[in-house]
C-alpha cells in the first residue's frame, strides 16, 4: 500500500465563516505538491490541518489508509518547516537537529552520525556548534530543513519557507529543496503565494481561492490551461475582456472590437470572459498581414515599455484600452520602438482562453 | 566662490554650532540635575555611614570610621533586619515570579477568553500605595479580620508571612508585564516546531518555553527582589515587630534620631538592591536580544482542560487583586469595622493637619511631577538616542541608576544634604513642595528615560533628516516632528509619573513637613494611629483620583492614532 495523504471534503470554520471549504485532494507518496494562493485563501490553514495544529471542522484527512483527524501533531510525525524558521534560539545547530531524534528516543550512539549526515545534506556541518542567531536567514532555513528531516518523516510540510529570504537565495534554496525531495523520495506539501516558485518546484500545483480549491494540475497545465478566470489572473499575467461569442467571433461588450476566436461550439451565444497572455500577442513588423484575420489586428500607441531582462513588457493603448504585450528583448531592439510610436498588434484566434461567467 | 555663498556657509556653520550648543545645554542641565539630586545625596549617605556620630549631640562628628558598620553587625537585633529583608525578598521573588509567569503564559499561550480585561485587572495594584495590600490583608485576616472571625482562622497574618503575601500582591503587575513581553516576543511557532518533532506538552514547556523566556524570568525575578527588599509601606503596616531594613532605617532615624545607624543600614540596603537592579538590567538586555523579528504570535486552540485550568487560575488572581482594593473601599464606608456595620461618610472628614487638603496637595504636586518628569525624560531620551553628544554614555548611566536606589535611601539622602547650607538650597528647597517634586521625578527617572529612548529608537532617523532638509532647525524639528511622534509614549509617561507620585511612600516619607502633607503619607499615619476607617477613606480617594486622571488622559490621547510607517515596522 502506498502512503497517500487524502483530504476528503475538508473544511475549517473560524466562528461563522469558512476559512477552508470542501477541499478534496489526493497527495501521492513521494509527490511534491504546492498549495498556491494569495494571503487569506486558506492554504496555510489547510497545511495546519494536515499538520494537526488546527482542528478539522468537517471532512476527513486520511494517511496511509488511516483517518488522522484526531491525532496530535506529535502522533502524526510529519516534519514541518516554518516561514519564521522557528529554530530554538537557545540550542546550537546540532542540538536543534537532534531535538526530534531525542524525542523519538533515537539510539544515543547513532545520534551524532545522524546529525552529521543531515548537516552534510544541507551543507552546514562546519556550523554545527553555532547558535541560530549567528547564521544567515538562508542558513537558518537549511537548519530548519535538516531538523524536520532528522526523524525521517514520510511527509514534510513547508509553510512559505522561503518568503523571508532575499530573491537570490530564494531561487537557489528552492532548487536545493526540489533536489533533496527527489533524492529522498519524501512527500512534500509546500505552501506559497509566489506563483513562479510554485510552478518551478512542484509536481502538481493546487490553486486556492477564498478557501476553495480552484484547480489542481501539473504546472504546465495550470499555466497553459487555467480552468477559471481566477487562476488565469493569479498565475502569470493576462489581458482580459468580456464579450459574446457569435459565429466564430468574439463581440466585445462595448462593441469596440470583433475578434476571430477559436472556441468550443457549445459556447455559442454565451457571454464570456476571454483572456490572452501578453506573450501570445504579436507585434507586427511590416510583415505581410494579408493572410491574418483583419479583425484581430489592432493599432495603438506605445505608452510605456519596461525592460525585464530576456523580455520587454509593452503597454499599448488601443482606443481606451491598455493592452500588455511581452516580446523578446532582441526583437524589441530590432524594431527600434520608442514611446508614442504607433504599433500594430496581432491577437491570434488560438491564443484566447475562454471562461464562462458563473 | 562668490562672497554670497561664503556668507551662507559661515551662517550655516554658526547655526550648526548653536544647535550643538543647545543640545549640550539641555543634556548638561539634565546631567547636572541628576548629579545634584540623585548622585550627591547617595554619595553623601555613603560618606556619612563612614563618619563618626555623637548620640548626645545628634550630629556627625566628621571623623572617618567603620564603627557604624561594626556597630550594626555586632548587634544580633540589628543583623536580624538584614536576614528578614532577604527572607522576604527571596520568597516574594519566587512566589511572584511563578504566579506572574503562569498568568502571563495564560494570556499569551492559551486561548482563554477576556484576555484584555485580565491584563488590565493585573495592572490594578499600580494605582494604590504599597501599603494597601497590608491594610486589606489585616482587614480580612488580621486578629480582628473579617475572614478570621467568619472562618475561625487560627493563623497569624502579621510578620513575615503577611509581608510576603503583601509584596506578592504589590509586585505582581511589575513581574507580569515583563513576563508578558518576554512570552509574546518569542515566536510561538517554536512550540509547534517542537510538537511536530514529537515533543509532548510538558517537554515543550520545560525544554522550549522556559529556556527561551529564561532571561525574561530572571529579569522579572530580579525586579521583584528589588521591589520587595526596598518596600516600606507594607512591612511597616503588617510587620508588627518583624523589622526589615527599610523599616529599621525609618525607626532609627525618625524614632531615635540615630542618623548613623540610618545611613549605615541605608548602605546595607543599597547593596542587594543595586545587585538586583544590575541583574535585572543585564537580563532585560539579554531578553530583548531573544526577540525574533519574525515572531508571529498565533495560538492554536488550547485543550479544554488546559483552558479551564488557566481560566480558573487567572480569574482567581484577578479576583484577589480587585478584592484588595474592594475591601478598602468598602471599609472606608463602614462605621467601625467588625463592630458596627452601618454605612457612614464620616471617615471622609479627616481630622488631620491639612484635612482633605492633603489630597489636593498630592494632586497638584503629582501634576507638576507628571509634566516635568515626562518632559525631562523625553528630552533626555532625545539627547541620548538621537543627538548622541560625547557625554551620552555617562548621561545614560546617570539616568538608569535611580531605579537601583531604594526610595527610602534617596529620601534620607535628601534630608541629610538639603537641610544643610549646601548650595543654599535649604531655604528655598527644604521643607517645601519642590523637594518632593524633584525627589519623585528623580526616583522614577529610569523607566521614563528608558521608555523615551526605546521610542526614539523607533523613530526613523530619516524622519528628522527630512525635517532638516526641508529647513527646520533642531528646535522646530523637535517640536513639529519628534514631539508629535512621541505623543503616545509621552502620555504613558505622564500617566506613569502621575500614578507614582500619587502613591509613593518610601521616597517622600522623610520629606513631608508641617508645610507639605501628602495623601499617601496620611494613609500610613492614619493607619498607624489606629484610624483604619479614615486611612481606608484616604486610600480610596487616592485610587479614585488616579483612576479619574488616567481616564481623562486616556480619552485625550485616544482620538489621534499615529500609524507607524510601513517601513518602520519591519
Structure, explained:
The complex is a heterodimer of chains A (358) and B (570). Chain A folds into 2 domains: 5-233, Rossmann fold; 237-356, Beta Barrel (OB fold (Dihydrolipoamide Acetyltransferase, E2P)). Chain A is 27% helix and 34% strand. Chain A is built from 10 helices and 20 strands. Chain A is an alpha+beta fold and 358 residues long. Chain A starts with a strand and ends with a strand. In chain A, helix 3 (93-103) runs parallel beside helix 5 and helix 4 crosses helix 5. Chain A has a 6-stranded mixed sheet with strand order 6-7-8-3-9-10, sandwiched between helices. Chain A has a 5-stranded antiparallel sheet with strand order 13-12-11-14-20, with no helix packed on it. Chain B has a domain at 1-49 and 332-561: Orthogonal Bundle (MetI-like fold). Chain B has helices spanning 3-49, 67-74, 76-109, 115-123, 132-141, 146-151, 160-185, 189-196, 201-212, 214-230, 233-238, 245-255, 259-289, 304-331, 357-387, 392-400, 407-418, 425-428, 433-443, 445-458, 461-469, 474-485, 487-503, 519-528, 532-558, 566-569; strands spanning 51-54, 59-64, 334-336, 340-343. Chain B is globular, with a radius of gyration of 25 Å. Chain B has 570 residues and is mostly helical. In chain B, helix 5 (132-141) packs across helix 7, helix 5 crosses helix 14 (304-331) and helix 7 (160-185) packs antiparallel against helix 10. Chain B contains 26 helices and 4 strands. Chains A and B meet through helix 2, helix 3 and helix 5 of A and helix 8 and helix 9 of B.
What attributes does this structure have?
heterodimer; A: 358 residues; alpha+beta; Rossmann fold; 2 domains; six-stranded mixed beta sheet; 10 helices; B: mainly alpha; MetI-like fold; two-stranded antiparallel ribbon; 26 helices; 72% helix
Domain module tally of chain A: 2
Number of distinct helices of chain A: 10
Give the helix level of chain B as a range of percent: over 70%
CATH class of the domain at 1-49 and 332-561 in chain B: Mainly Alpha
Instruction: Give me the secondary-structure category of chain B.
Output: mainly alpha
CATH architecture name of the largest domain in chain A: 3-Layer(aba) Sandwich
Largest sheet properties of chain B: 2 strands, antiparallel
Main sheet summary of chain A = 6 strands, mixed
Order of helices and strands of chain A: EEEHEEHEHHHEHEHEEHHEEEEEEEEHEE
Q: If you average the pLDDT of chain A, what whole number results?
A: 90
CATH class division of the largest domain in chain A: Alpha Beta
> What do the pLDDT scores of chain B average to?
86
Low-confidence region ranges of chain B: 561-570
With strands numbered from the N-terminus, the spatial order across the biggest sheet of chain B is 1-2
Roughly what fraction of the amino acids of chain A lie in strands?
25-35%
Tertiary shape of chain B: globular
Largest interface: A-B, 34 and 27 residues
Write the CATH homologous superfamily of the largest domain in chain A.
P-loop containing nucleotide triphosphate hydrolases
Amino acid at each position: 500500500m502506498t502512503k497517500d495523504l487524502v483530504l476528503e471534503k475538508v473544511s475549517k470554520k473560524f466562528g461563522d465563516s469558512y476559512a477552508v471549504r470542501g477541499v478534496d485532494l489526493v497527495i501521492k507518496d513521494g509527490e511534491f505538491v504546492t498549495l498556491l494562493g494569495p494571503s487569506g485563501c486558506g492554504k496555510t490553514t489547510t497545511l495546519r490541518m494536515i499538520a494537526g495544529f488546527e482542528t478539522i471542522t468537517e471532512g476527513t484527512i486520511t494517511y496511509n489508509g488511516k483517518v488522522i483527524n484526531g491525532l496530535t501533531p506529535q502522533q502524526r510525525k510529519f516534519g514541518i518547516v516554518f516561514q519564521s524558521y522557528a529554530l530554538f534560539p537557545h540550542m546550537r545547530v546540532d542540538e536543534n537537529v537532534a531535538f526530534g531524534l531525542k524525542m523519538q528516543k533515537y539510539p544515543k550512539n547513532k545520534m551524532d552520525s545522524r546529525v552529521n549526515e543531515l548537516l552534510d545534506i544541507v551543507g552546514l556541518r562546519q556550523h554545527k556548534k553555532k547558535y541560530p542567531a549567528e547564521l544567515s536567514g538562508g542558513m537558518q532555513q537549511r537548519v530548519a530543513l535538516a531538523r524536520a528531516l532528522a526523524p525521517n518523516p514520510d511527509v514534510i510540510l513547508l509553510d512559505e519557507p522561503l518568503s523571508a529570504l532575499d530573491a537570490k537565495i530564494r531561487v537557489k534554496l528552492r532548487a536545493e529543496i526540489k533536489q533533496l525531495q527527489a533524492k529522498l523520495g519524501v512527500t512534500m506539501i509546500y505552501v506559497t503565494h509566489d506563483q513562479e516558485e510554485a510552478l518551478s518546484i512542484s509536481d502538481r500545483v493546487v490553486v486556492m481561492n477564498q478557501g476553495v480549491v480552484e484547480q489542481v494540475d501539473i504546472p504546465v497545465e495550470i499555466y497553459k490551461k487555467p480552468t477559471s478566470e481566477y487562476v488565469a489572473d493569479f498565475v502569470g499575467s493576462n489581458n482580459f475582456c468580456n464579450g459574446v461569442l457569435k459565429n466564430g467571433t468574439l463581440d466585445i461588450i462595448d462593441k469596440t472590437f470583433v475578434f476571430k476566436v477559436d472556441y468550443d461550439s457549445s459556447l455559442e451565444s454565451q457571454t464570456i470572459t476571454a483572456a490572452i497572455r501578453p506573450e501570445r500577442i504579436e507585434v507586427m513588423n511590416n510583415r505581410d498581414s494579408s493572410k491574418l484575420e483583419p479583425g484581430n489586428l489592432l493599432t495603438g500607441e506605445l505608452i510605456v515599455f519596461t525592460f525585464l531582462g530576456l523580455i520587454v513588457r509593452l503597454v499599448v493603448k488601443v482606443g481606451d484600452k491598455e493592452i500588455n504585450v511581452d516580446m523578446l528583448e532582441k526583437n524589441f531592439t530590432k524594431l527600434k520602438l520608442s514611446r508614442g510610436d504607433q504599433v500594430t498588434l496581432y491577437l491570434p484566434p488560438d491564443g484566447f482562453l475562454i471562461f464562462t461567467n458563473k | 566662490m562668490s562672497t554670497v555663498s561664503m556668507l551662507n556657509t559661515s551662517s550655516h556653520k554658526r547655526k550648526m554650532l548653536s544647535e550643538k550648543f543647545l543640545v549640550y545645554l539641555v543634556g548638561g542641565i539634565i546631567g547636572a540635575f541628576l548629579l545634584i539630586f540623585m548622585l550627591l545625596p547617595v554619595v553623601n549617605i555613603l560618606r556619612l555611614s563612614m563618619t563618626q556620630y555623637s548620640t548626645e549631640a545628634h550630629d556627625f562628628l566628621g571623623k572617618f570610621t567603620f564603627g557604624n558598620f561594626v556597630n550594626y553587625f555586632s548587634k544580633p537585633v540589628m543583623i536580624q533586619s538584614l536576614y528578614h529583608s532577604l527572607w522576604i525578598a527571596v520568597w516574594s521573588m519566587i512566589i511572584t515570579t511563578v504566579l506572574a509567569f503562569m498568568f502571563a503564559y495564560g494570556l499569551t499561550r492559551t486561548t482563554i477568553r477576556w484576555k484584555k480585561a485580565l491584563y488590565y485587572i493585573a495592572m490594578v495594584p499600580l494605582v494604590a500605595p504599597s501599603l494597601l495590600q497590608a491594610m486589606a490583608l489585616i482587614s480580612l485576616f488580621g486578629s480582628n479580620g473579617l475572614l478570621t472571625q467568619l472562618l475561625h482562622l487560627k493563623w497569624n497574618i502579621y510578620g513575615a508571612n503577611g509581608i510576603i503575601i503583601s509584596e506578592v500582591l504589590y509586585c505582581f503587575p511589575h513581574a507580569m508585564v515583563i513576563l508578558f513581553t518576554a512570552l509574546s516576543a518569542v515566536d510561538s511557532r517554536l512550540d509547534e516546531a517542537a510538537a511536530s518533532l514529537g515533543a509532548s506538552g510538558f517537554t515543550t514547556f520545560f525544554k522550549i518555553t522556559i529556556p527561551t523566556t529564561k532571561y525574561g524570568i530572571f529579569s522579572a525575578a530580579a525586579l521583584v527582589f528589588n521591589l520587595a527588599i526596598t518596600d516600606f509601606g507594607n512591612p511597616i503596616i503588617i510587620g508588627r515587630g518583624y523589622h526589615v531594613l527599610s523599616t529599621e532605617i525609618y525607626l532609627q532615624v525618625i524614632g531615635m534620631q540615630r542618623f548613623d545607624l540610618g545611613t549605615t543600614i541605608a548602605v546595607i540596603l543599597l547593596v542587594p538592591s543595586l545587585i538586583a537592579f544590575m541583574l535585572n538590567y543585564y537580563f532585560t538586555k539579554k531578553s530583548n536580544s531573544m526577540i525574533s523579528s519574525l515572531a508571529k504570535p498565533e495560538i492554536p486552540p488550547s485543550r479544554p482542560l488546559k483552558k479551564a485550568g488557566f481560566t480558573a487560575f487567572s480569574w482567581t488572581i484577578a479576583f484577589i487583586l480587585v478584592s484588595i482594593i474592594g475591601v478598602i473601599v468598602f471599609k472606608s464606608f463602614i462605621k467601625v469595622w467588625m463592630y458596627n456595620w452601618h454605612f457612614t461618610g464620616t471617615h471622609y472628614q479627616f481630622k488631620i493637619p491639612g484635612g482633605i487638603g492633603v489630597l489636593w496637595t498630592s494632586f497638584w504636586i503629582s501634576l507638576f511631577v507628571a509634566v516635568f518628569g515626562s518632559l525631562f525624560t523625553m528630552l533626555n531620551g532625545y539627547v541620548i538616542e538621537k543627538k548622541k553628544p560625547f557625554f551620552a554614555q555617562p548621561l545614560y548611566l546617570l539616568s538608569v541608576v535611580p531605579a537601583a536606589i531604594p526610595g527610602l535611601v534617596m529620601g534620607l539622602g535628601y534630608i541629610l544634604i538639603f537641610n544643610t547650607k549646601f548650595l543654599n538650597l535649604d531655604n528655598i528647597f527644604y521643607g517645601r513642595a519642590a523637594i518632593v517634586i524633584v525627589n519623585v521625578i528623580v526616583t522614577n527617572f529610569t523607566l521614563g528615560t528608558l521608555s523615551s529612548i526605546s521610542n526614539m529608537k523607533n523613530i526613523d532617523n530619516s524622519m528628522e533628516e527630512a525635517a532638516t532638509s526641508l529647513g527646520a532647525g533642531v528646535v522646530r524639528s523637535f517640536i513639529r516632528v519628534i514631539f508629535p511622534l512621541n505623543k503616545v509614549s509621552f502620555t504613558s509617561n505622564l500617566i506613569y509619573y502621575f500614578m507614582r507620585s500619587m502613591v509613593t511612600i518610601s521616597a517622600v516619607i522623610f520629606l513631608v513637613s508641617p508645610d507639605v502633607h501628602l495623601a499617601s503619607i496620611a494613609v500610613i499615619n492614619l493607619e498607624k494611629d489606629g484610624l483604619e476607617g479614615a486611612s481606608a477613606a484616604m486610600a480610596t480617594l487616592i485610587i479614585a483620583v488616579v483612576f479619574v486622571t488616567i481616564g481623562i488622559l486616556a480619552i485625550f490621547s485616544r482620538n489621534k492614532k499615529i500609524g507607524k510607517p510601513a517601513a518602520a515596522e519591519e
